[in-house]
Amino acid sequence: MNNTYKHIKYSKLILVKYIIITGVFFISNIVIAQSVEVWLTTGDQTNKLSEKNDLSFSSGTKNGTVIDIDDAINYQTMDGLGAAMTGSSAYLIQTKLSTSQKDLLLNDLFTDTGINLSRVRHSIGASDFNLSSYTYNDIAQGQTDPTIN
User: Fold this and answer.
1) DSSP assignment, residue 79?
2) What is the mean pLDDT of the chain?
3) Residues 101-114: what's their mean pLDDT?
4) Are residues 1 and 51 in the same domain?
5) Would residue 71 count as lying in a domain?
6) Are 136 and 148 in contact (CB under 8 A)?
7) Residue 11 burial (CB count, 10 A)
8) Is the distance from CB of 87 to CB of 129 less than 8 angstroms?
9) Residues 20 and 54 in one domain
10) What pLDDT score does 123 carry?
11) 109: domain range?
12) How far is Cα 132 from Cα 125, in angstroms, rounded to an integer?
């Protein structure tokens, strides 16, 4: 190989390394600059889904609780966040709230200006929080339906 070819090859290698190092530095600074919203609920009810000051990611030694994030490891994934809707809750919302109160409640629960829930769980059949007992396979008294038709 001639020296010109070696010099070009070496220069390209240095340029590629420079681009990679610069990219890693740039990306790590983006991650460090990101912040996370904090919403707090405490058992003594002094905080009930209270918005707190945002926290920022940073590097270096810190006091207090430290959470190390390793993007290479996924223990579980989340499809969304939600809450349970009991029969008694649905009854109270339907019968005790005005239209404007219902709108306010639904906006507080399901929009990004509220807590932005994306899932609702409802029990299959009556739970202990329903006004009456029922199943999705109610049959006349004295009859049986072992195949759940």
Assistant:
1) S
2) 78
3) 92
4) yes
5) no
6) no
7) 10
8) yes
9) yes
10) 80
11) 79-122
12) 10
Binned at pLDDT 50, 70 and 90, residue 5 comes out as very low
DSSP 132: S
pLDDT at 118: 93
> pTM value?
0.48
- Across 100-129, b (16+ Cβ under 10 Å) vs e yields eeeeeeeeeeeeeeeeeeeeeeeeeeeeee
Count of residues making up the chain? 149
Q: Is the same domain home to 52 and 94?
A: no
Mean pLDDT, to the nearest integer, of 52-68? 79
Looking at residue 141, its pLDDT comes to 86
Q: Mean pLDDT over residues 34-38, rounded?
A: 83
Torsion of CA 101, 106, 108, 114, to 10 degrees: -150
Q: Is residue 10 within 8 Å of residue 3, measured between CB atoms? A: no
DSSP state letter for 116: -
Residue 131 Cα distances to 4, 97, 123, angstroms = 87, 17, 13
Dihedral, CA atoms, 66, 48, 121, 114, nearest 10 degrees?
-90
